[in-house]
Amino acid sequence: MKCDKKDLILYAVTDRTWLGNMTLYEQVEEALKGGATFIQLREKELDEESFLKEAFEIKELCRKYNVPFVINDNVDIAVKASADGIHIGQKDMEAGYVRSVIGENKILGISAQTVEQAVLAEKQGADYLGVGAVFPTGSKADAEDVSYETLKAICEAVNIPVVAIGGISAGNVLKLKGSGISGIAAISAIFAAEDIESATKNLKQLTVGVVSK
Predict the structure, then answer these.
(1) Which residue among 39, 87, 210, 213 is least packed, with the fewest CB closer than 10 Å?
(2) Cα–Cα dist 125/115, whole Å
(3) Which domains does the chain have, with CATH numbers?
């Protein structure tokens, strides 16, 4: 399964920080009800057995809503769970190797912070790029800042969709208009919200007016 540009409008990245009384499954379903178009399961602390079980559950949920589902960083889990694909960072794994493991029909997303990284990622077979952090973020401690100018230059340099990530919220997403992005990725703007479904719906409405046509 490859992703369409429209699948990337609102890319929700999971984070268990704000679970409270809800399960991750419940939170993801709320986001999907609100209109999330893409789900990335991001787990840094779970043991492999729990991660795999969760991956199967969230994958089935995403299928129910006909939304692409990818795993962050972990190729083994992505393959075992038959996820739609995987997203890797610059420091995670060599993209060509990842492509050889997951096959040609799976989605490969790659993080990029510079035009050079973006162009190389496209050559290595990326289906989309995650570019950021475009705003200050607390969700990823090692995220490097990417200016609006760099974001725009990356969009102009590649022929694959670009998703902006990092500190994006309903309060600042309109600042990304005109950059050429195909969508945004959000973590806390969705999963830290009291009403995840409403927050997702609002963020999506704003983002539709920002993304390039």
Answers:
(1) 213
(2) 16
(3) 5-208 (3.20.20.70)
**Structure letter (DSSP) for residue 144:** P
Do residues 89 and 74 touch, judged by C-beta distance below 8 A? Answer: no
Q: Where are the beta strands (DSSP E) in the chain?
A: 10-13, 38-41, 69-72, 85-88, 107-112, 128-131, 162-165, 183-186
Which pLDDT belongs to residue 56?
Answer: 98
Q: Average pLDDT in the 22-35 region?
A: 98
| Beta carbons of 10 and 186 less than 8 angstroms apart | yes
Helix or strand (DSSP H, E) at 59: helix 48-64
Please provide residue 53's backbone torsions phi and psi, each rounded to the nearest 5 degrees.
-60, -45
What is the arithmetic mean of pLDDT over 165-169? 97
Please list the active-site residues. 42, 111, 140
pTM of the model: 0.96
